[in-house]
Amino acid sequence: MSARPVLASTREELAALLAEARAAGRPVGLVPTMGALHEGHASLVRTARERVGDGPVVVSIFVNPMQFGEGEDLDRYPRTLPEDLEVCAHEGVDVVFAPSVEEVYPGGDPQVTLDPGPLASVLEGRTRPGHYRGVLTVVAKLFGLVRPDVAVFGQKDYQQLVLIRRMVADLCLGVDVVGAETVREPDGLALSSRNRYLSESERLEALWLSRALRVAQENAAYGAAVALDEARAELRHGKQVALDYLVLTTPDLEELPDDVPPGTEARILVAARVGATRLIDNLPLVLGAEPGSTTSVAGTHTQNTHTRQGGS
Questions:
Q1: How far is 41 from 45, CA to CA, in rounded Å?
Q2: Nearest Cα to Cα of residue 253 among 268, 241, 231, 238
Q3: Domains 7-180 and 193-304 share a fold
Q4: 237 belongs to the catalytic site
Q5: Which of 74, 73, 57, 56 lies closest to 65 in space, CA to CA?
Q6: Across-strand partners of 273?
Q7: Would you say 266 and 250 are in contact if contact means Cβ atoms under 8 Å apart?
Q8: Number of other CB atoms surrounding residue 157 within 10 Å
């Protein structure tokens, strides 16, 4: 096991720990998390290490109250700092930044926040109003505090990834935002801190989400309508799955044109409640290509937020 990372809980401690690397011109990598770390987070750390070499890798652990709405699971969100530090030690993290709410938001809610734009009102934003305002505000604050050269986010929170890239481009923040592929259990379930809320039967039901996405991939050669219809049919097998949305978009979360040329890259996204737990997942696919073709391209910038809807 690698040496334990240094824990910083204040802005001053964080700045002091990164001062030497900045003075030497070594790149800094950041993996923002809310804790409850699992193998998916560990894979993000490894990606950050590949990008910065001998530069410091910082993992932030902060349960951000601004991105939780009324009735969401802020209070029960798992807080497992001792275990998280063990994961970080195993992956060779240099600094863990675990600030308090007061440290991140001195004086209470900030008066200046980030407007996430029209993309924040669809998909996750439609059911979680204000969520992406909170996400982008805290990510911008972390970028300001850590000043990373590279920041790594998972593709599982795909809309978040697209919005963060949009923010970085529009505000000229100068951070290389890397979207790392989703890590899955052997049966296909996307790793998530919320999986721990699932009962044994609910976990089995949750597999219909990833199965539906795989079916869409397998049928992408026959076009968008077929891929979406087959995914929708697969989801109907989930007796405990309450579908929120199933959509097929461009990799930028833009509307797919009616006439899609062969080889068009796309993204299929799903959100549903299984029992009391809300889960999201997504996969890339290539429309009109040979069966089995996929793409790992993560979302980039977007303005148009209309999507081809496959469920509600």
A1: 6
A2: 268
A3: no
A4: no
A5: 74
A6: 242, 278
A7: yes
A8: 18
**Is there a contact between 161 and 139 (Cβ–Cβ < 8 Å)?**
no
Residue with the two structure tokens 């296909």: 188
Q: Is the pLDDT of residue 286 over 60?
A: yes
For residues 211 and 231, what is the distance between their CA atoms, to the nearest angstrom? 8
Q: Domain ranges in the chain?
A: 7-180, 193-304
User: Rounded to an integer, what distance in angstroms lies between the CA atom of residue 160 and that of residue 203?
Assistant: 24
Residue with structure tokens 């299929």?
Answer: 268
In CATH, the architecture of 193-304 is 2-Layer Sandwich (3.30)
Give the end-to-end CA distance of the chain in Å, rounded to a whole number.
46
Q: Catalytic: which of 41, 90, 237, 301?
A: 41
The pLDDT tens digits of the residues spanning 8-66 come to 999 999 999 999 999 999 999 999 999 999 999 999 999 999 999 999 999 999 999 99
Nearest 5°: the CA angle 211, 212, 216 is 115
Which residue bears the tokens 């799955």?
Answer: 241
- Where does 189-302 have alpha helices with state H? 200-218, 224-235
Q: Residue 125: pLDDT band by 50, 70, 90 thresholds?
A: very high
| Cross-strand partners of 272 | 243, 279
Rounded-to-integer distance, Cα 233 and Cα 256, Å: 21
Q: What is the pLDDT of residues 198-226, one digit of tens each?
A: 999 999 999 999 999 999 999 999 999 99
- Which residues lie below 8 Å from residue 167, measured CB to CB, with a gap of 6+? 114, 116, 136, 139, 140, 173
Least confident stretch, 76-80, 160-164, 218-222 = 76-80
**Dist. CA 216–CA 139, nearest whole Å:** 32
CATH architecture entry for 7-180: 3-Layer(aba) Sandwich (3.40)
